[in-house]
Amino acid sequence: VRSVRLAVAARASRDGAGVKLARSLGGAVLRDLDPFLLLDEIKSDRAEDVVKGFPDHPHRGFETVTYVIAGEVEHRDSVGNSGLLGPGSAQWMTAGRGIVHSEMPRPRAGDLTWGLQLWVNLPAASKMTAPRYQDIPPDRIPEVGAAGGSVRVVTGAFEGAKGPVDGIAVGATMLDVTLPAGATFQAALPELDAVFAYVLEGALRFGDTPDPTPRGTLAVLGDGASAIARADVGGRFLLLAGRPIGEPIARRGPFVMNTEAELDQAFADYRAGRLGT
Ligand code: MN
Question: Which of 101, 144, 232, 275 could join 270 in a cystine, given CB atoms 3.0 to 4.6 angstroms apart?
Fold first, then answer.
């Protein structure tokens, strides 16, 4: 059974044009968890915290996953895609060799904007692949009952349900699990996968770890054949699993490559207008 190896409380930060967010993965405490690179949570009912958004910016060499719980995020990119992500929707964007895009929350007065962004690395062989978007509306994400609660399967499989996101290099599993008080949830996950849980509501006890992991905390789960979560007071969490890539990670700003020279090339390509065309 996978128990908590490290618990990381998300830290308040700002990114983009000044969006208030909480970063648990990708900061000073936990720089990466191969193949995962970053996890940010945005949660605010104050428009000024989120409205400046993430105007046009590039990415190369990895995948960005946007998961919207409440509110709306408009996106637009350099290869002609655009759309509005509403509550319950997911976007899995493979930046590959390069894309320039904007991600702009569209808050309405007093309404909650709540979403997450996850970065997933690509192996060297896929870093310069063609960009690809998978925009998934809420009704395409299967929801299955488990332990008296519910599980939304974004990618990977759980209890016979298969997530709509496909073709992910690291074979990722992404589940959104909601449990009532007293429930015990169990999921079998590939033994070689890196696994973490991020608590969205309430608190959960993972594996044999006695201390509950509270809301706003990322729990890195250690080795084992399955993840177990006990919800004494009820709770909701994202459960992520993915195969480690095991390659050098060179990251700078919006680019994640294998070497510094490849980062320099990415910046040069962006400045020359060769990225995202
Ligand atoms: Mn982006």
Answer: 275
